[in-house]
Amino acid sequence: MSSFNITVYKPLGYSPVVCGFFTYNSIKWVDSLSYEPTTNAFYPILMQSTQMRILLAEDELYSLDMCAQALESRGHKVTGTTNGDDCLKVYSNAIKESAAKKEELSFHYPFDAVILDYKMPGKDGKEVAKEIIRLNPQQRIIFASAYVKETLMDSVRELNQVTELIQKPFEPDVLVDLVENVQSARLVRNLKALAGQINDRDNGESSDKQIRVLLETLHKIQGIE
Fold it and tell me: Alpha helix locations (H) across the chain?
């Protein structure tokens, strides 16, 4: 199995900078900026400072309101829905508007991020994500879930990708930091190859170990202790 190392520089008072991204062995936190010649590049993790368009699906009204307020306080535009069906309607309409304007879909368009409660009545987060990925394979998606390992496993096996995760319960400012950390989100997308490798192997102890390692890697990239 191929793997990668990630070296992360965290200067005092600044957002982290990832200095290496290549085959998996470990994630190493260092105190000074370094260059790894095998990486060919380094990736600064920068916090998004401009207004973002965010689609949020959460069936608990209190949580929906708290998260929306926290994101809007940072100047972001939030569209909130309380179920998967309404979320898909909003997203589908945004796709139609994009087509009418002849605008290209991307990682951050029509929304900079789609945040999905993983467990919702009716159409759940996974089902919504499947449809969104069908419409726009590049769309950034964040799952909010109390069971992150199981959610990651479903993401890998059923969506064939590693999706950003935030574990419930969480403070709204933690969600804001995750949403605004767009470079971290791009690094997570680079884990898709590992998702494919896990799917290519038989289920069992080996696959379970790979999921655990993948979850640890995801937490490190996202800055979750």
Answer: 61-72, 84-100, 125-135, 148-158, 172-180, 182-189, 192-200, 205-222
**pLDDT reported for residue 49:** 55
**Per-residue pLDDT for 47 more than 60?**
no
Is 149 among the domain residues? yes
For residue 188, count other CB atoms closer than 10 A to its CB: 21
Under the banding of pLDDT at 50, 70 and 90, the label for residue 121 is confident
198 belongs to a structural domain: no
∠ CA(93), CA(133), CA(109), 5° rounding? 55
CATH number reported for the structural domain that contains residue 159 in this entry? 3.40.50.2300
Confirm if 38 and 22 have CB atoms less than 8 A apart: yes
Is 66 domain-assigned? yes
Overall domain count for the chain: 1
